[in-house]
Amino acid sequence: QVQLVESGGGLVQPGGALRLSCVASGFNFSSYSMSWFRQAPGKELEWVASIDLGTFTMYKESVKGRFTISRDNAKSTTYLQMNNLKPEDTAVYYCAQAWNNPTKRGQGTQVSISS
Length: 115
Hints:
- 0% of the residues lie in helices and 48% in strands.
- It has no helices and ten strands.
- The strands form two sheets. Strands 2-10-9-4-5-6 form a six-stranded mixed beta sheet, with no helix packed on it. A four-stranded antiparallel beta sheet has the order 1-3-8-7, with no helix packed on it.
- A hairpin with a 4-residue loop joins strand 7 (67-72) and strand 8.
- The radius of gyration is 13 Å and the shape is globular.
């Protein structure tokens, strides 16, 4: 059974940084691409970033240069380093087992950007 547990969210001021983690279990982590999605209040779920089995990554245009997705196969963990955060980044962030497909995702972690 696929399990994905996100952590690392919180409340930070604009310009601040957070590092989200997602610990995976129930499947062979190193054999799957991984992604991050987010859902802001009143808005639809949107893709943020994906990483393939190695180091190839892609990002939503609005987070390029600010967010970095990475993975540690030994720890079955994927990360999302978020720098220079903006109020519009406020959302619940989810990791998902797949490239740009949110079907199998965790419960999410809240990220709030406010002064």
